[in-house]
Amino acid sequence: MDSTHRGPELYGRDDDGPGTAAGPRRPVRGQLTPDPGRPAPPQARTVRLISGDYLLTVNPVDGSEIELCPPGEHPGPPARRTEAGRAGRERAAAPPVPPGPPAPQLPLLERTRERERLVRLLTQGRSVRLTGPGGSGRTALLDAVAADCADLAPDGVVRLSGYKRTAADLLYGLFEAVHDAPDHRPDRAQLLDAVRRIGAVVVLDDLEFGGTALEELLDATPECAFLFATVPDVAAPTTDSQLEEVFLAGLGRGACLDLLERAVERPLTEEERNWAGDLRFESEGLPLRFVQAAALLRQRDLLRADPGAYDTEDGPAQDAPFGHDPAVDGVHVPLPSLGEGAAPAALLASRLSEAARETLRFAVALGGEVPHQAHLPALIGDTHADAALGELAGCGLLSPAGSRYRLAAGVVTQLEAAGYGEGATERARTAAQHYAWWAGHPSVTPERVTAEGDAVLAAMAQLVPGDGAGQASVAVLLARSAAPAFAAGLHWGAWERALRIGQEAARIAGEVAEEAYLHHELGVLALLTGNPDRARAELETSIGMRGALADKSGAVAGRRALALVADRAGGALPASLAPPEGELPAAVTAPLPALTPRADEPVTRAVPVASRPAPGPYGTTAALPQHGGTPKAPAGAARGGSALLAGARRNLVATLAGILLTGVLGTVVTLGLTSGDDDVPGHKDIVTEQTQGQEEDEDESPADGPADGSTPGSTRSDNGMTPGPSDSGPTSSGSTDPSGDPDGPSGSASSDAPSSTGPSSPRPTGTQSGTKSSPPPKPTKSPKPTPTETESDSPTPSDTATDPGPTEPDTSDSASGPSATSTSASAGGDDGPEIV
């Protein structure tokens, strides 16, 4: 095989296996050998978005990460779409054309007066509320008015759908329709500032709110003229609203007959005209009823030509009796009854294909939401099921809703009465499983999931609360798959609804890990929408659940978001931000080392242990004492938190590092000062011997000064030091000199002080005797003592470092009693005061 022709490898297929002539399969360079028993996990789809001052990273594994947007990544002012760009977006947002033969184009009958009035009001900059019952032709009238106002405003005409949308959703939809800002969602202040400068004619169909929310929408867009279309059941505007009201009534008899003839595409017989007149009275002249009546007449024409056209395996598709009428066509099919004409959905559906009827059952199970035609083959199990959408649209059973279709007004109730609602829960579960797989597939873009958002949410809502086994778990799976796509697609209204439904489903199913993830997402969403209190509650709940599950990565993501909440709110960090025991280094949690001052150091530098501040969070001190003063209380103590933790986490880490650095530098300086005392001339021949047991006694008990009657060469009675000779002779013990005496090394006791107890006798090493005495004089030159003599008989000079700190009374049973005091410090510095 040459280098230019790779054969099967060119299309991603390698040799069949080790039995080929080419030898065993060799893995591609840089590619791991796949494990056949463990398939490779799908890649997590992460998306970075900017919302106000925040940078959001949508992470479907551990939870979305939120942080302050770096200065270099802030987007500039959003660019406005051109006229061509607005036209292209409008075509993309329109519902898809159903497959099959095109439906006849019906004219707008008896709407000339309403059309002219609406155009006149919009030209004057007035906003209008068009109210009419379902099926009255509101959408057709909006299309005609939008065409008349195409060149009226600088930003053109914006078409929006209010179906299951709030005022905030509509404001963001208006911003996205006029501005081209990919991966950018402005915050509330930026949004209001942007939409305030939009000048467009906004045609909004299926408005579902009124009152104060409607007034807020109008106040936020003073340069826009709105044309709302709604039904009478929606709440009315406020009493002081400036909206113009236009009511849409049904058609007259002549218009109804004309519409029926145009839809049937043939003249009506006298019998059909009389039947149409009765139907107009029954349906109050709604145009939708006559579109559906035209479908009934077309089906009747087909039956007259072929009586078995709609037969199925179960028998005839309709129960109407057939008769022969040779004077007419040879086969007589009676007209539908008046009741069937007023509610024709069941009769129309009975004459459709099996795929179309199954599509209606799925639509009823989803609350009227019709899945996209691309999903019908997978849901129904028929490769040609996508053609069912054309059948339903041609019968007048569908109506457009934004970029998709839903069942027309009144069709859901009629089909449920005909038994199409049986097995709705199982079909909703099937749809939820399909959407969960589809929404989580890496090849599906967030925009496609957002366009199918209403059907996804409907499938999820039908399973909560679920009575069947596993229904709640399927809803949780769908929420985990669809919620990140809704967030990445900037449809945050659907994102919140998916999180709410999924959280309730996870609680019912007992899936704690999934519930913790959904609580985390709700907290992030609350922070993005400017609700820090709700964000704090949701994140704390998520951190608690993940802590119980030992989910470290998820808990870290929650703590980061909660720290940002506390930082933005300006309060103390909550207790849940404290990491578990042992998570910080031991050097940070250890207490600061005790420092031994030099003899010539000022007394004001020493701070008693009792005045040291109490340890704060993470084992550090809450405040550092000032020189010669008392420790200052933390600034955040009134709020129940430390002042060091009142800021962001970075402030906490910096403070801990500073405290650690202070302790290390103090220890180094102290060791350097202590080592410098060895160069003093009087210390060269001093030898201090001490056992391990005596060192432990020194650490556990406070230092005692030497009793009265001791000589400069004697030591304290509690440290067990062997007395030694003194070059200056035996002297009496007195008070120490704080300033340091130059005659003795390191500020030793003065030899001129008067003695209060007389000569003292020597004490054996290691005894706890209360008396202290000096040994008898010995010759200057003596033979070298043996090791035994060195430990028991050889006297050694004591280390008499003077302590500049406060003195303590001697508690030993000395000959002089407790009246005499001393402040001698041990050689190791453990008995001296500590400096923080």
Task: Please write out the topology.
Blueprint: E1 47-51, E2 54-58, E3 65-68, E4 79-80, H1 83-93, H2 112-123, E5 128-131, H3 138-148, E6 157-161, H4 167-178, E7 179-180, E8 184-185, H5 188-195, E9 201-205, H6 211-220, E10 225-230, E11 244-247, H7 253-264, H8 270-283, H9 287-305, H10 338-342, H11 345-350, H12 354-365, H13 376-380, H14 388-394, E12 398-401, E13 404-407, H15 411-417, H16 424-439, H17 446-451, H18 453-461, H19 471-488, H20 492-509, H21 512-528, H22 532-548, H23 552-569, H24 586-589, H25 649-676, H26 692-700, H27 787-792, E14 801-802, E15 808-809, E16 821-822, E17 824-825
Helix pairs in contact: 2-3, 4-5, 4-6, 7-8, 7-9, 12-14, 12-16, 16-18, 16-19, 18-19, 18-20, 19-20, 20-21, 21-22, 21-23, 22-23
Q: Can you offer a commentary on this structure?
A:
By secondary structure, this protein is of the alpha/beta class. Among the domains are: 144 residues, Rossmann fold (3-Layer(aba) Sandwich), CATH 3.40.50.300; 92 residues; 79 residues, Arc Repressor Mutant, subunit A (Orthogonal Bundle). It has a five-stranded parallel sheet, sandwiched between helices. Strands 3-2-1-8 form a four-stranded mixed sheet. Helix 7 packs across helix 8. The chain is globular, with a radius of gyration of 45 Å. It starts with 46 loop residues before the first strand and ends in an 11-residue tail after the last strand.
